[in-house]
Amino acid sequence: MFSGIVEETARVVRIEKEQDNLHLTLSCSFVDELKIDQSLAHNGVCLTVVRIQDSTYTVTAMRETIERSNIGLLRVGDEVNIERSMMMNGRLDGHIVQGHVDQTAQCINIEDQEGSHCYTFRYHTTPQMVSRGYFCVDKGSVTVNGVSLTVCNPTSDTFQVCIIPYTYDNTNFHAIQVGTTVNLEFDIIGKYIARMNELTK
User: Fold this and answer.
1) How far apart are CA 97 and CA 4, in angstroms?
2) pLDDT grade, residue 200 (50/70/90)?
3) Which end of the chain has fewer surrounding CB within 10 Å, N or C?
4) Domain total of the chain
């Protein structure tokens, strides 16, 4: 479980394809604190550390993960938002994030608001997806590339988030442009409510 509070950005240093899997090797400042089998969120995707070597670590993404997320779009040199799993004796500064990306969205607008940045994202939606809780509500929580954010001005297939300078500088939001594909994880509480509504119809 994660909180959506990004610790830092890791740098992709190697990508290896093995059948339908991708092995991603990355570098970050706390590699020496990691261990094999540890879970880390990468742009919001929970991946397991499978190798640690030469100040880098490697994680593996399988087909399901690649199809639902932007992991397959990563290139050597890209920045990836990373977060270690939440300690249960700490404060929940963001919101409950599972690291299970639901789908991707595309950035369709960026507005400089003289100190903050407002991003608009569009995602694919159907009535069936809405019934599973894949939607946003105003002032609700959403995870974008692993960052816990508050939803503004949602429509049936778009929403906005506003980014303070610290988040802009310390996550890969500064690299997002119009057309960039990002990962979304919708609020787990909303998913449970949507599921209960479906079962009680």
Assistant:
1) 6
2) confident
3) C
4) 2
